[in-house]
Amino acid sequence: MPVLGLGSSMRRRDFIPLIGGAVAAWPLMARAQQPEQTRRIGVLMNTSEKDPQSAVRVSALVRGLEERGWILGSNMQIDYRWGAGNSSLYRKYAAELAALAPNLILVVGGTGVGELQRVTQTIPIVFMGVTDPVNRGLIESLARPGGNTTGFIEYEFGLSAKWPELLKQIAPSVSRVIVARDASESSGIGQLTAIQTVAPSFGVDVTPFDSRDAKEIERTLTQVTHGPNVGLIVTLSGSAIANRKLFITLAARYKVPAVYPARYFVTDGGLVSYGPDPIHPFRVVASYVDRILKGEKPADLPVQAPTKYELVVNLRTAKAIGVTIPQSVLVRADEVIEEQT
Do 298 and 150 meet the contact criterion of CB atoms below 8 Å apart? Predict the structure, then answer.
């Protein structure tokens, strides 16, 4: 019997900690069995919802998030708004998204960033498609952005200096270049300044005009293209993207050689483009969205620059407007849209 008593005592001592461990584990088990918290993401685009590019961008963004474990309808909800290059829409939708109190807002274009910063200093903001965010006052520095904002820049202004050079390569007789830029954005001014700086070295005069208004675009191109040796450069902005089909149509109508800032201008019928890959960043930005949703601060995430640029040529358009693309340009092209046979 004493032996049994000793054995019973030992079993009780072993059993009591076991019960304590099980009780302590119950809350953990309960939490593990609870559904994962859904994170809400606001997205403010600089395109319109009907723009075919919008669907491509959304698809790349969602795919990038899914690769990191964020699944729509499961642990992630996305609310979209569409600025379409319109300042008043950016202002309206920035306020709407902030009022939803999402865990993070992703925004494309500098104007949208500025509007969001006016309505929230606490919701994390991740931007894309912004040029020169430091001088625009959106962040403190590229390495340490500070505040609630970080993201991915579109490109440096030095890229804009490549466009007059490319235009002269495809149309050597061009002596006058009209430049479409958004005068309301500092990035439009910066791109124009870079073009004006190098223009004399290529023997061309530069005439800027505003790309925000469709009537102004048509009026300007109709007037100036009657002169000889005229070329067109379209700088990158939300308004240029929104009006790109108008630019392409008018350039074709008046047989004006034109250089555009992104691939989708050329796949839509433009002549030549040189600029960063416009879709890849939407997949890459998911890395910052993921890190912030998991607790990192935008202020601690350095702003990143694009690493891939592409030259795209449309030989169908070249043939239609009577431009012969030099072989030196074709061999450098990342994509050539062939003539129809």
Answer: yes
Same domain? For 241 and 230 the reply is yes
Q: Is the torsion defined by CA of 114, 117, 123, 124 positive or negative?
A: positive
307 neighbors 284 (Cβ within 8 angstroms):
no
Q: What contacts 310, CB < 8 A, 6 or more positions away? A: 263, 273, 274, 275, 276, 277, 334, 335
Is 198 among the domain residues? yes
Asked if residue 28 is part of any domain, the answer here is no
> In which domain, by residue range, is 200 found?
157-277+309-337
10: in domain: no
pTM over 0.90: no
Tokens standing for 214? 């469709």
pLDDT of 182-232, one tens digit each? Answer: 888 778 888 999 999 999 999 999 999 998 889 999 999 998 877 779 999
Structural domains of the chain, count: 2
Q: How many CB atoms lie within 10 A of CB 261?
A: 25
- H or E stretch at 10: helix 2-33
Q: Smallest Cα–Cα separation from 323: which of 331, 315, 332?
A: 315
Clarify whether residues 165 and 235 are in a common domain: yes
Q: Which helix (H) or strand (E) holds 287?
A: helix 286-293
Closest CA to 278 of 293, 261, 297: 261
